[in-house]
Design the sequence.
C-alpha cells in the first residue's frame, strides 16, 4: 500500500482519497477525453456500487457532464466550465509550482554544500 501512496496525484495527497475525488482526479488527468461509466470504474479499480453511489452527485453539481452518446453508451467528461473544476485545476497547478520551487531550493542547497575541488 505504501507504493500506491507515492503514485497518488497531488489532489489526492492534499485533499484525501475519497471516491468522489478519485473520480474527479481521473477525469482531470484526461481533460480532453470522454469515458463511459464502465471505463471509469475499470480504470479506477473501484467497485460499481461505490462508483454509482458518488457519480450522480458529481453530475448533479455539474462537475461531470455528458459529452456524447455512441449507440446506447453515454460518455462523460470533466466539465471545464464549472467554477469548482476551475478552482481544482488552479489548486493543483499551485501545488505543483510550490513543490517545484521546494525541489529547486533543495537542488540549490545541495549544489551550494558540495565541496569544490
Sequence:
Amino acid at each position: 500500500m505504501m507504493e500506491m501512496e507515492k503514485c497518488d496525484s497531488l489532489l489526492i495527497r492534499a485533499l484525501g482519497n475519497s471516491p468522489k475525488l478519485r473520480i474527479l482526479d481521473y477525469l482531470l488527468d484526461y481533460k480532453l477525453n470522454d469515458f463511459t461509466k464502465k471505463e471509469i470504474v475499470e480504470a479506477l479499480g473501484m467497485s460499481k456500487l461505490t462508483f454509482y453511489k458518488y457519480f450522480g452527485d458529481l453530475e448533479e453539481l455539474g462537475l461531470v457532464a455528458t459529452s456524447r452518446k455512441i449507440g446506447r453508451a453515454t460518455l462523460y467528461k470533466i466539465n471545464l466550465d464549472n467554477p469548482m473544476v476551475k478552482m481544482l485545476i488552479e489548486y493543483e497547478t499551485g501545488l505543483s509550482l510550490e513543490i517545484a520551487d521546494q525541489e529547486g531550493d533543495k537542488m540549490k542547497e545541495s549544489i551550494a554544500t558540495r565541496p569544490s575541488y
User: Anything to note?
Assistant: The two ends are 44 Å apart (CA to CA).
